[in-house]
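Protein in question quoted in full.
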Amino acid sequence: MRIAVVPAIVAALVSCASDRSGPLEKPTDSVIPWKEQAERNPGRFAPRLYVAYDAVSRRDWAEFDRLSRSLEEQAEVESKLSGPLGTLFLAAGQAGPAARSAGWLEKARRALEKGCNDPDCGADLPFNLGAVCFLLRDYPAASTALQQSLERKPDHADAVTLLVRSLLEQGEPAGALRWLEKAHSTIAAGERLELTGLCHYMMGQHAQAIQAYEASLEVVSGSVRLWHNLGLCYEESRQTEKARECFAKADALRRSAPGNSGPR
């Protein structure tokens, strides 16, 4: 049996598997003033950027393509616009049809790399670059960008969490654990304890993993994933009866709430 890993950060890493090709709904009222500004001032970047985000939210990919092309042309001339453009393509890559997601994420990566060259770019652009690289499964590049984000904002909880996940994907649980210990008060207790348990499990330290998972279950008791992983730790420790009880608890929770794998 294989340990169930923690899902990716929802705020930054939503599904890339939508196959919708047309708009879900009409433009929202809030975007109308931006559309009017874009029509009156076709050279202004911000109004068209906002309208492009609205197109992403409605899955209107024809409108998004039209707007993003003009935004790309402007960002080529004004490099300071690369960061906002990259973040837009990250949103499209997260929400778009699977057949186009990777292409948009690659565009996001190139634009964000350019934006991160600015020493005053702050913490958010390196974080977004790290998220893009994570989605593209380039975990070393993700780790580098996320550490850059944390240099600028040490208490960036999402950056710490995604960095830990990236290090775990690279098979570096000891490094991930050091970051968890360093950011002890930054990450929510349940998530921190679960990730700590996963680090110890991957290092073969099953007693410490059990301790962390049990502490996590005191915070989030209804997680199928946590009970399953705790059961694996007991199984590895040859505590068969306790392992069986944990697996039974996980199965009962799964039956009572199909699709439940714990906190997301």
Observations:
- DSSP finds 13 helices and no strands in the chain.
- The first helix runs from residue 32 to 40.
